[in-house]
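I had to read the description of the data format several times before I understood it. For illustration, here is how one protein appears when written out as sequence plus structure tokens:
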Amino acid sequence: LQRENDDTVTNGQRFKAKRCFSVDYFTHTMIRLTASEEHLFDFLLQVARHNNLGTTFRVAGGWVRDKILQRENDDIDIALDNMMGKDFADHVCKYMLEHDMGTVSSAVIQANPEQSKHLETARMRLFGTEIDLVNLRSETYSEASRIPTMRLGTPLEDALRRDLTINALFYNLNERRVEDLTERGLADLRDGIVRTPLTPRTTLLDDPLRALRAIRFAIRFDFMLDSDLSEALRCPEVTHALCSKISRERVGSEVHGMLHSTRPAEGFRHLVDHGLCDAVFPLPEGRSWAREEAQMGLDLVRTLAPELQDPETRPALLLALFLCPFRRGEYRAQKNRVLPIARFVLREGLRLRIKDIERVEIAHRGALLFADLHSAPVWTRIQVGLAIRSVGALWRSALLLAQGIHRRQRPHEGDRYKELAAWINAEALGEVWCSKPLLNGQEVSALLRIPPSRLIGQLIDRVVAWQLQHPEGTADDCKAYLLENKDALLASLHAQEPCRPRKATDLPSQI
């Protein structure tokens, strides 16, 4: 499915699809099974016949959707109409033993609503394919929780309780046909629409996490949100429920999926346009997102995301772009500690890994350093080199971020960031962040006859600065410098406060 014009991507209301599939294809949909899938499904039916179970098997959810869209998907969830998944798994194990097919075991996965597993599931591996077995069910939700009360349900009830029509399709193994019990799933796949089976407000208030799932699927398939769903996403009740009923880990998991998509800027756009920034990226108490802050973050993501190519660091850097309006912001945490606002958003709001939080903070700190360098009248190897070393491997991304901020805030002013990048390249400083000091701490301690202390680390910083100023210098040259200037260096270090410089202009310009 392809969009005919970019306007539909921007306003999210008008949509036209070039149909890669004919209307007849969706009306008489056939699933093309692989040989291994055919073998697996035939075996399940044989087990049911052998035991006179009278069971109807339906593959549910994403596997059906992706098969129709001719995408690969090996996540096979099978819904049973007359028994629990564990009971059928026991029949499978017994059948294989009786027919000398070897032994197979099943694992029971207990209900875990925090992982969107609302019902006990039996998981087993058959002929090299892992499948989940669960019974059809109906769900009833309370106002205070997204954890439903479960009971055995009909195929229609099971389809209607799902998050989206495109995820509510079944593939009936007994009849080898697609079942669209919501009567909208196939049409929505054809037309590229993300829609809920029931009224959007009901679906979202039952499980507010579906608000983020709807956005994630919209950007994953380049579909548009149904207008009623879009309106419901803006409902204050839905926003409140998302904050009160959903764990921050689950919110973080959905954001993780958005960041790893091919169109993350569209995900941020949906969050901004639907007023979900405070619910997804909560700020410290007493603060909330201003429209200008959200728009600035979105503009930076749109402009700079294509430049972020490293899959390892890209998700964290996308967050650094979006949270850039708060790069100077701080809040007072426990024990009266002053910390970056970005840390609150990422740790308390999304429960992200420490590594990713540190990458965001480094990118923000680096952007501030390069902004200072940009305004410096003259660049020196020491100032620029120490700035790069303090940022580390992310210095190029930090420079890109600083340039993006400058261009957005001062669109009519020229900038020197390209000139700075060229100067860094000419001075061969690009990899200085990973170069080792010519002397280590033990060597400095023995040379100057100073016992191990904080001074040794500060002297190593001076060694690095000397290296930057003397790129052709040797270890012996550096030792001679330290011996010749020992008294002056120690007096200078004793007079300084033991704090790390925060601005590039605070770094020494010369030895």
